[in-house]
Input
Amino acid sequence: MTELSSGGDSLFASYSEAAKAQAESGIASADPLKLAIEQARAQQDLYFQTLNQDLPQVAKISDLKVPSPHGEVAIRLVYPDLVQAKSYIVFVRGAGFWAGNLDSHARTMRSLALLSGSVVCAIDYRRTPEFHFPVQRNEIVSVLDYLQTHQESLGISG
Output
């Protein structure tokens, strides 16, 4: 595991090392407009795997299921330490909702938790094109409501 101090320099160094490994692997980020969606997702998964090696160590990771209008949605909470009542950040990955999962942005989430001192929450919302907007927005809102309602039991504060 990579040690990550509270300074931006170590975050930059950590990402620089990961980006170098990614570039050396020859695996580029995928374009779902140029590849079939399953091919694009498979390539994107390989891309993220190269970025997510030698991850910074965090105190705790919790995977939960949250109710939403479209069924349960998985979330992951990344705790930088075990002090209770931490503020929290909800991490909504980009890319038009077509790629990624709870593991895809592991380095980003862990680094963000350690540098901010906040609990970071990732949402494994349903992906496009199988599920159309506003499904993803509805799931994100459901997670926000859940976090707000269950702050004490989750060890977070708004």
Notes: The domain at 8-157 is CATH 3.40.50.1820 (Rossmann fold). The chain has a mean pLDDT of 88. The chain has one domain: 8-157.
